[in-house]
Every structure is written in C-alpha cells, then in structure tokens.
Amino acid sequence: MTTKAYAYIATSLDGFIARKNGDLDWLPSPNESEGDYGYQEFVDSMDILIMGRNTFEKVLSFGDWPYTKIRVMVLSSKPISIPENLSELVETSSLHR
After folding, report:
1. Cα–Cα distance for residue pair 74/92, rounded to 1 Å
2. Residue 87: is its pLDDT beyond 60?
3. Which sequence spans correspond to the domains of the chain?
4. 44, CA 20 to 30 Å: which among 7, 8, 16, 97?
5. pTM of the model
6. Mean pLDDT value of segment 55-76
7. Are 66 and 86 in contact (CB under 8 A)?
8. Of 32, 35, 75, 45, which is closest to residue 57 (Cα–Cα)?
9. d(Cα 27, Cα 89) in Å, to the nearest integer?
10. Which residues pair with 72 in a beta bridge?
C-alpha cells in the first residue's frame, strides 16, 4: 500500500496562516465566494485529516464540528478536550521520547 501525504493550507502573501492573534478574518467566508476552492472535494478524498492543536481549537470555535465523516488526528504538546466524534489524539511531546 502506498501512503501519500498532502497539505492544504491557505496562506497570506507574507506566508502566514493566521494573524498574530489567531484571527482568520482575511480569508473569504463561504458566502463571500463561489464555492470552497475545492476544499470539500479534497477532504472527501482523504482517509485521515491531521491538524495541529491551534487549528483544532480554531475549528471548534466555528460551531458544529465539520469533520464528522473523516478520521481526525490532532497533534498537540498540551492536553486538550476531545469531542466524541474526534477519533484520535497524539501528543507531540510523547513522539520525542
């Protein structure tokens, strides 16, 4: 079996994903644009979605958890609360032992 890894990241021209305060207000919301730039199709093609703790916490702040149909792994060096529909947590501090 071949394993492939892909990254799908929206970045500003100066190379940042979020503002210093974590805000993503520079990204267009779905109702401001036509479509989602292929994001849902991309996610639907994956077996697992891996994200960092900051991204995880930001997605939780959006309301309903959008990744109920895909296995999600959150990499974190700090303890976090995991919703029931999140399938896995890896603390990165345990990876360095």
Report:
1. 9
2. no
3. 47-95
4. 16
5. 0.67
6. 81
7. no
8. 75
9. 27
10. 49
- pLDDT on residue 55: 82
| Cα 27 to Cα 17: distance, rounded to the nearest angstrom | 9
Amino acid identity of residue 27, one-letter, is L
- Amino acid letter, 65: W
- Pairwise CA distance, residues 25 & 40, whole Å: 20
State the Cα–Cα distance between residues 50 and 44, nearest whole angstrom: 14
The Cα 10–Cα 57 span in angstroms is: 17
- 3-state SS of the chain? CCCCCCCCCCCCCCCCCCCCCCCCCCCCCHHHCCCCCCHHHHHHCCCEEEEEHHHHHHHHCCCCCCCCCCEEEEEECCCCCCCCCCCEEEEHHHHCC
> Tokens 């029931």, residue?
84
